Amino acid sequence: MGQIDKQLQVIKNKFPAQNERIGKLFQMNEDFHTLCLDYFLCLRQMQKLERETDEQTLSIAEFSDLRKELENELKRFIFNG
To answer: HEC profile for the chain?
Structure first.
């Protein structure tokens, strides 16, 4: 599936009852075509940011766990001689 087909499918999926009208507008109206591209790119960027945020959240959680483990080891040395 080409890039243009993906853009069009995203819009059709968003407004499934309007598939025929969307197809016609996409072919005949340059402004609508551009708007579909902008919407598609916006969604793609949002998905990228969500993935990056998930990865960062996981890293933060991992480091938080490690910090707690290290703090416990520090306490063991400090308080138990």
So the answer is: CCHHHHHHHHHHHHCHHHHHHHHHHHHHCHHHHHHHHHHHHHHHHHHHHHHHHHHHHHHHHHHHHHHHHHHHHHHHHHHHC
